[in-house]
User: Fold these one by one.
Assistant:
Number 1:
Amino acid sequence: MRPPTRAPLARRRSGRLVAGVAGGVADHLGVDVLWVRAAFVALAAVNGMGVIAYGLLWVFVRQESADVTREVSAKERQQAIGLAALGVGIGLVGAALQNQVIGWIVGPLGVAAVGAAVVWREADEAQRRRWTTGARTGILGGGRNAVLRLVAGGVFVAAGILVFLLGNLNLGQIQFGVLAVVATVVGIGVLTVPWWVRLARDFGEERRERIVTEERAEIAAHLHDSVLQTLALIQKQSHDPREVQRLARGQERELRHWLYGPQGYGRSTPALDESLATALQTTAAEVEDTYAITVNPVIVGDRPLDDSLRALVLASREAMVNAAKHAQVEEVSVYAEVEPDEVNVFVKDRGKGFDPEAVPGDRHGLADSVLGRMDRHGGTVRLRSTPGEGTEVHLAITLSQEEST
Amino acid sequence: MTDPIKVFLVDDHGLFRAGVRAELERGAAGDPPLEIVGEAGSVDEAVAGIGHRKPDVVLLDVHMPDGGGAAVLARVRKTQPDVVFLALSVSDAAEDVIAVIRGGARGYVTKTISARELGDAVRRVRVGDAVFSPRLAGFVLDAFSDRPGAAPAVDPELDLLTKRERDVLRLLARGYAYKEIAGELFISVKTVETHVSSVLRKTQLSNRYELSRWASDRRLV
């Protein structure tokens, strides 16, 4: 009886004799498997077409994946073995009868084909084991019998090719050499076709899955450690707007750094490891966190840190801290520009400002940290402050010639 | 009495639109009023809405599904070249900023800007000014800087900044307002505006490598 929808073409895994091709075709067409086998035998009589067709179907049709159990009677099995032997025999004899030379070629190659069939069948077995156990076994995963079958198959192939070559020795030494190489390559290729195909497919799939999974895990872990924790903190601190602002700002900066930063998620080329720009950004972030204000650093150009630039960064930090502590503002602007022969940093606020002449002697912050530091490294400090309008600190360092690139 | 400036909001977050609308409509005492004539949450809605409402200024989100702000810019500017765009985004990555500026926006502000400053920015782009945040000024300075080994300028008119323009940009990056820049450089506010507009034009039209790279990193031009 014909099923209402035609089953897709797939080789049988159970109740098969050689590779399940005939059974699969029978399932697909909805006819008895005996008729299919008979058709292959009949085709084998026509220049061995049946054998070739069988081989091609074996290579290109996938094995069915569902584990269906089929009862195969002893009688059917015997019939099938007989038909298979008959098919191969007819193919070989037919070819041999038609032409002496073809017979010579087909005979040994037939033996090689039988060897290849044994090896391929082993490949099918390995795949079935993989499906049933889920294990990622390699090519040789089926115990001693499997290895024996593999070796036997390999011997068949080698012997067939060898006999074929010996039979053609009279064609001349050069041709022999060429033939030997070609035949070896073909033999190895034919033996390993199913594994190459499968290996490539599995490898690509596994790799893609692994990348996607890892990526997702990394993003999830990051969001959990950072954003979710901060949101929880914000909910707890909701009565204190200043603290909420500080948390939100810190989290925003961190996420932004992760997304767009030098080593950021969305960047392809990592920036300099220890550079002026990175150091200034980190410093600005620290000041933001400590004093709950906003520090907006804008940095043009970059260069690796050296001693004088480290001093510059520390002096800038002191200037930012001063603004945060004394200016009574929400926001401090920082602008740094790296030029070939000098680096300028401006720290500006719009706070209450002060009179530089009237700074009490016990406030050493600006004098020691900023002026002293810059002096020691040959830099200059210019301070502009107007009470009521704000303060701007300008730090400049001239780069010596051997340092500049 | 001047008519209120007609503003159109484009952002795919409804909550954010509602917040901006409330803030802008409340306004500050003494400032010329702003009127929100419509809002849209997607590129198609925005193109249709802007065509229908004919606003003076469009506040445009950079990141949206189906192409984002750049897609709106590209489609609207073909039919309504006199509508002014001000880009608004949470990002301050150079790729985003430069891409919308080169797409035709006259300014770029981040979403953390205060309501007062946003209102000012809208009024300034309305009268033809450019709105440069300190960070945008930094990007532009960076793009036009003459590093050793940089490609020579092909078109000096567009690929180089004048000394004055550079001075103005530096002060912008340092956080100075236009009035303060004018005082610092002993020029009028009007001249500062002229310099900034000229820098904006160069940023939009120059073929400098940095600019085209930033813009094309987001595949927007």
Number 2:
Amino acid sequence: MPKKSYPEVPFAAIVPCPTVENDKMVTGNWRSLRPVVDMEACTSCKTCWLMCPDASVNFDEAEGISFNLKYCKGCGICSSVCPVEAIRRVPELDFTD
Amino acid sequence: MTTKKRATGLTAVCDAWQLVDIDVTASYPIRPYTAVFADLAKRIANGQMKCEMVFAEGEHGQFSIAHGASMAGARATTGSSGVGLTYAAEVYSPIAGGRCPIQVLVGDRTLDPPGDFGSEHTDCLTMRDNGWIFGWAQDAQEALDNSLMCFRIGEDPDIMLPQIVAMDGYFVTHITQDYEVPDQDLVDRFLPPFKPKFRLDVNNPVIMGPQITPEMGPPLEWDRNVVMQRAKGKIVEVTEEFGSVFGRHYAPFVEEYMTEGAEMVFLLQGAHAVTCKSAVKYLREAGYPVGMLRLRWVRPFPEEALQAIAAKFKVIGVIDTGTSYGAAGGGGVLLVETRASLSETPDKPIIQGFTSGLGGEVITHDEFFRMAEMMRKTIEAGQLVQSSTWVNFNDYV
Amino acid sequence: MTLSVEIDSKMVEITVWTRGVQLAKEARDVATLLAVAGSSEGKYTQSFDNYVDLPDRIGVACKSYARISPEPIQTVYEYENGHHDVIVLVEETMIKGHPYLQDAKQDCVVVVNSARDPEALLKWFEPKESLPLVKALACIDANSFGAGVMLTFDGTEGASDDTKIGAGVGAAVAGAAAKASGCVTLESLLAAADNKKAVQQGWDQVKVLPFCDGKPFCETPSDPQELGWR
């Protein structure tokens, strides 16, 4: 049986720091309920964008609210703080992607 | 009458502490030993134990609280892991020098960097010079038994030294195993209540740990040396007594496994000995003349016990699950101690070091097989091929 | 090199995937129940949680393990199961985005706690290259039996578990896993669990979809117990 081999480790385990997203810790698969926004009801108040603990709600002037599904953990805070109840939480397996 | 139980090494030590009715304990969380306090807190809240649990602000505080409680005459305990043990570094010597027999539970953890939870023995061994009695348990049963024996040895009026009951983090602290909890009557027979000769008492005032003149220092240290040497005899005595009271007989210092006709032996301590025994069986079937020696105590180090048996073997492969950077021989603490023990022994075997199981990694059967092959090459060569081998880093096979 | 030996070759390894905090206790119960049941049948068993998962984060994937062997276990100090005979997903969404089939053994059985049918889950079942290893995919709607989910940290990190074992949905999932894989008998599982009704429901109502060469819908074996011991 071959010897165990270890990964290359940089000096003192010092690594570059992520600046936009931490792609070494992708958390989208923690989610079992996916947030879905009803664009008709949404008032663009941006409370969900403000309150998301993982900065996974995007706001665009033209496109409105959308979710970063790569990282969204499905905690549901966006849904519970929405003042007009525009965000539903839907079982992941109901989607085809 | 014993109770059979299926739980972990942490629960086993809790059971021991419940049986001996500890008075004070100081808690602070660090993985992997932490759950001992979850268990203790439950038992205290349920009324199963009458014990004062003090929440310390850190490990230095934990040890100091236990120290103070012991000075007041309480049977006191605490515990820690990894860098928690080194955080309390300042107080190990005062506690041992103050002859306060507190008991500390250690669930080993690798020292930072980088924050790995796996077990290494370095955390506890770093503090080996301060005058505490300690050794490793290989499973939950031995953890319970060592705890009982340590109270008996440490609190003995002839000894009065603090003790560490050490066990590998995760392997012994987290994996459930079968063990027996002895009957309260037997424990009461084995361990008398803690009645120290001196304690802080307003009716009989004493000063503990006063400032001393320089000339008083060396005699106090000589006393500590004398008592640490005396502890060896006490360990033999107590281990025998334990066997006759509880029916479980341990070798006082070194457990020998399949050493009859062995030309090479592994020397190690703690949880990896369990896997080692299994590997030795396979190796023997394949024709390797191999056995195992398991250390039960590191302080006091059992040099006489090793000297008595060493000449039987051609090679001893000392396995260190830990580091001592820059130490003589390029291995760990056990390698240095073993070589030192046997340096003047006639017909001593060749002693080579293996560093394995770092970062809490399992020492696999395959790695034991490879180490045996390396020892075989040493026997063929008739001398050391390599003083210290870090398995998977600089193996010569 | 030197020795090439089979170590713990007859051991059945059961790996239970779950989500941290809410469902960790249920997963631990599934593993504990199967191990205790195996012990009562005279087998050598172990059950433990994965040490590295850090399950005190809500929703993170974490695992519990059970190991059942007819011979004394030689590798008692291990961190995880090396090769999985039975893979249990306590939360259905985990079927996508998690490497549960990595290191799965040939003829492994996958059991999912889901209200959906096994056929409906097929499109998520991944990776496709590993499907030839699968002997059956089973579904059980454990949440519908009203057993509830126990939420507790008791029994984690090496402390003792003073709560009931197998009181919640884990009991039904264990029953389903036992029926689909044949790793323990119903009798020993009923004796081990607190909520025996849920165990029976899991056993009776599990839907098993057998696979042949990585393809579903082959002829149903008459008795899933024939999956038996290796």
